[in-house]
């Protein structure tokens, strides 16, 4: 891919604020948000094709087999992946494409697309993260504790992987958004 576009990857554990930050950066810089494919059940809040592309296990496996996914991972028993073609087309066309994916996926993509800008969103501390998970009121305490343990593992993996260019602590949402936006604009200027 010889386009002048930019691939931006934003990751972070559940409760760190990555989705809010990613969507605000998308809006502010005019990026295209990559829609992940998943086998998880669609919730009442989800819009198919906008939040995720919801598919069966069989369809997801077929995409893996044909090489149609840039990355994929199994998380909490469900598969998530990034369709390859829209990302490659956007970057080749000179656009900024934004992916919100987990650490496993970011490592896979960074190996294939080393020019990608990778940002990891951190919570201020573990106590704040645990409280944010509880405040969402989406799950029981057992599931919250599983997510908290997974978040701790994911943060450690992100630091050890070497795949991330930037770590941003989300202790103040507007500041964290501004920092992420600044890093993206800096890279857009350099590549454009």
From TrEMBL:
Positions of ATP binding: 12-19
Cited InterPro entries: GK/Ca_channel_bsu, Guanylate_kin-like_dom, Guanylate_kinase, P-loop_NTPase
One Pfam family hit: Guanylate_kin
SUPFAM superfamilies: P-loop containing nucleoside triphosphate hydrolases
Reactions that this protein is recorded to catalyse: GMP + ATP = GDP + ADP
Residues covered by the Guanylate kinase-like domain: 5-185
GO cellular component term, pick one: cytosol
The EC number(s) this enzyme carries: 2.7.4.8
Keywords, in A-Z order: ATP-binding, Cytoplasm, Kinase, Nucleotide-binding, Transferase
Annotated localization: Cytoplasm
CDD domains, A to Z: GMPK
GO molecular function, one term: GMP kinase activity
Top-tier EC class: transferase
Tree of life domain: Bacteria
Signal peptide start-end: none
Function of the molecule: Essential for recycling GMP and indirectly, cGMP.
Family: Belongs to the guanylate kinase family.
NCBIfam families reported in the protein's UniProt record: guanyl_kin (TIGR03263)
Protein name: Guanylate kinase
């Amino acid at each position: 891919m010889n386009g002048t576009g930019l691939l931006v990857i934003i990751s972070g554990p559940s409760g760190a604020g990555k989705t809010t930050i990613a969507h605000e950066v998308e809006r502010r810089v005019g990026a295209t948000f990559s829609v992940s494919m998943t086998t998880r059940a669609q919730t009442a809040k989800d819009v198919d094709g906008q939040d995720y592309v919801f598919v069966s296990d069989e369809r997801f496996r077929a995409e893996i087999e044909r090489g149609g996914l840039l990355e994929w991972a199994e998380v909490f028993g469900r598969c998530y992946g990034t369709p390859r073609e829209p990302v490659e087309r956007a970057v080749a066309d000179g656009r900024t494409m934004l992916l919100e994916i987990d650490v496993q996926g970011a490592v896979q993509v960074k190996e294939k697309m080393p020019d990608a800008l990778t940002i990891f969103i951190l919570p201020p501390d573990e106590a704040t993260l645990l409280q944010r998970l509880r405040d969402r009121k989406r799950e029981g305490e057992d599931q919250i504790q599983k997510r908290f343990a997974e978040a701790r593992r994911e943060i450690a993996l992100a630091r050890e992987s070497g795949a991330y260019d930037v770590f941003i602590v989300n202790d103040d949402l507007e500041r964290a958004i501004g920092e992420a936006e600044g890093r993206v604009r800096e890279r857009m200027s350099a590549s454009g």
